[in-house]
Design goal:
By secondary structure, the protein is α+β, with helices and mostly antiparallel strands. It has helices at 8-12, 15-20, 28-38, 131-134, 139-146, 159-171, 176-198; strands at 2-4, 50-51, 61-62, 95-103, 107-116, 119-128. Strands 1-4-5-6 form a 4-stranded antiparallel β-sheet. The protein has a two-stranded antiparallel sheet with strand order 2-3. The longest helix has 23 residues, at 176-198.
């Protein structure tokens, strides 16, 4: 079993795709400042989210997240991040994996898989009688490969066969752990390459 993937998936994402996977966390303080500037408080000690300043010129002002009670000062010692929703995780980007399974004398099975948010999703399955066609290293082999019928799309296969293929991959370590690790590794590798490029 051989699994290949590339950091090029990060470069191939459209800006719309990048936007759907979350905003830049550095912008959150700007959004809070803009919200505070537009949220003009009226005077009075009972104004929600304000701190009473007494008889100062500006009156009351809104409480910023950093002005909340420190975790160490709370009675139960718990910490609740005001910017995070319950159970929300930043979605990872989809990483494309190429899984190649070969057996001597039996051919090769190639699967196009997407790993995202801890899930392994099979996109396509191809069967090759000659294993060298699955990983064509020459133009002739690539041309021969393109002219072969390699099977129907994965979604058109019998549902039981789809489940069996997913279970087959899961038993061989192509599972949730791998689907969580690959996007993190690609991100780490891309950052390393970026720093190398800068120097």
């Amino acid at each position: 079993i051989r699994i290949t993937f590339s950091i090029a998936d990060l470069n191939n994402m459209d800006q719309d795709d990048a936007d759907q996977f979350g905003e830049d966390p550095a912008l959150s303080d700007e959004e809070a400042a803009n919200a505070a500037a537009t949220n003009v408080q009226s005077g009075g000690g009972n104004t929600k989210g304000s701190i009473n300043q007494g008889r100062t010129k500006g009156g009351n002002f809104a409480v910023a997240p950093e002005d909340s009670i420190a975790p160490s000062d709370r009675a139960d010692g718990s910490y609740e991040d005001p910017n995070s929703g319950e159970g929300e995780q930043e979605p990872s980007f989809p990483a494309r994996l190429n899984v190649l399974i070969t057996k001597a004398g039996k051919g090769a099975l190639q699967l196009d898989v997407t790993a995202q948010d801890g899930e392994v999703l099979i996109e396509n399955v191809y069967y090759f009688k000659k294993p060298e066609l699955a990983d064509a290293k020459t133009a002739e082999l690539d041309w021969s490969r393109r002219n072969l019928y390699t099977g129907p799309p994965f979604g058109n296969l019998d549902e039981d066969l789809q489940v069996l293929l997913e279970r087959y991959l899961n038993e061989r370590g192509i599972d949730t752990a791998l689907a969580l690790w690959v996007p993190e590794y690609i991100d780490w590798k891309e950052q390393r390459e970026y720093i190398s490029w800068l120097s």
